[in-house]
Design goal:
By secondary structure, the protein is mostly helical. Helices cover about 65% and strands about 5% of the residues. A hairpin with a 5-residue loop joins strand 3 (about 130) and strand 4 (about 135-140). Helix 7 packs parallel to helix 12. The radius of gyration is 20 Å and the shape is globular. The chain starts with a helix and ends with a helix.
């Protein structure tokens, strides 16, 4: 079933993307390079709103499986969980549409990811505990309030678990949002991440085929979109797509038994890059939301890599470290995360050295 779902979402996203591209072009919802020529080098206006296609493909196939088979519900996954994922995605798509069309201020953009994260925790997807890699767990479900019930289904507030889940989802959401600077980068990383989470979910430790189905649906949808987003891109994810992909990887990591370390190994390199970039801006007395070409993926272009070489290099790092989670346990994942930090340091050093060798212009 997971592979069939992958094929279906791939095909549907590949078919829906040109329709979305046509619709965005007709309404002139495009990314024009003239708005920021220092960062935008695509040389032509490219339609936005691309994230609508993988979102629709994922949603239609997931609900199709849920309503026509017994493969999705009946285990740990409940209808309210899928409803929450759908509504949260819809919130991000609406926010993305408004931003792509009206260019919202960062403070207003933030409202939609926060609302989406609250929808997720309200529908019962949370992190009740964090596994200590050196043994034991840290419980986050000590303070619980039941707000209301629908039939036999209670809706609760689990203070620390829900707060941690919201912060976690915001972190993964903004990681892919800020990473979305090169054609195909976010769509490819989402494909890799979805496949890795699906593999983890099918393993003996997690044993959640339901999560594997959703993860493969995400991977297939992202890959179908990537066909149109590969360099030179014919359409961009836009605000909605760039936030939804990271949001979904974060949500699936929670569903897969709180595999936070797994998601960190998938998104670790871009997350470190985002953290470094924000720190650099703040120390440089700039706003954290100030856009520039300081990200690793832009630096790789500046030192001579082609667009495709830079993207494939980052794919490789994400795939290697994401795959490590399949064969490591406990403290071994801490060592893997430390290794990821070391790789980030090596890449940064290589970029700095390459800059020094470049002749002054």
């Amino acid at each position: 079933m997971p592979f069939l779902v992958f094929v279906l979402t791939f095909a549907l996203a590949a078919l829906l993307t040109p329709a979305v591209r046509w619709w965005a072009s007709r309404r002139n919802i495009v990314d024009a390079p003239s708005t920021d020529p220092a960062r935008k080098r695509h040389g032509r206006s490219v339609p936005l709103l691309g994230g609508i296609a993988p979102f629709l493909a994922f949603t239609l196939v997931a609900w199709g499986v849920a309503l026509t088979t017994d493969q999705l519900f009946g285990g740990f996954l409940m209808p309210k969980h899928l409803l929450g994922i759908t509504l949260a995605g819809l919130v991000l798509m609406v926010g993305g549409f408004l931003d792509d069309r009206k260019h919202l201020r960062p403070s207003r953009q933030l409202l939609f990811p926060i609302a989406a994260a609250l929808v997720i925790v309200a529908c019962g997807i949370g992190i009740p505990y964090i596994t200590n890699p050196f043994g034991g767990t840290w419980q986050l479900n000590n303070i619980v309030w039941t707000v209301f019930s629908v039939g036999d289904t209670p809706y609760r507030v689990i203070l620390f678990a829900d707060l941690f889940a919201v912060l976690w989802l915001l972190a993964t959401t903004y990681t892919t949002k800020i990473l979305d600077g090169l054609d195909g980068l976010v769509a490819g990383i989402t494909t890799i991440g979805g496949i890795i989470i699906a593999t983890v979910s099918l393993g003996q430790e997690v044993s959640q085929p339901e999560t594997a189905i959703l993860a493969m649906a995400l991977a297939g949808a992202a890959l179908g979109f990537l066909m149109w987003n590969w360099h030179p891109a014919k359409i961009f994810l836009g605000e909605g797509g760039s936030t939804w992909t990271g949001f979904m990887l974060g949500t699936l990591a929670i569903l897969a038994g709180g595999k936070i370390a797994t998601a960190l190994l998938i998104l670790g390199l871009p997350a470190l890059d985002v953290g470094w970039t924000i720190a650099r801006r703040l120390f440089g007395h700039q706003k954290a939301t100030h856009a520039d070409r300081g990200h690793l993926h832009f630096r790789l272009l500046d030192v001579g890599l082609s667009h495709r070489q830079a993207v494939l290099l980052l794919y490789t790092v994400v795939a290697v470290f994401g795959s490590i989670t399949l064969v490591t346990r406990g403290e071994q994942k801490v060592l893997a995360l430390a290794g990821l930090g070391f790789v980030m340091l090596l890449l940064a050093t290589a970029v700095i050295l390459a800059y020094k060798k470049k002749p002054a212009s």
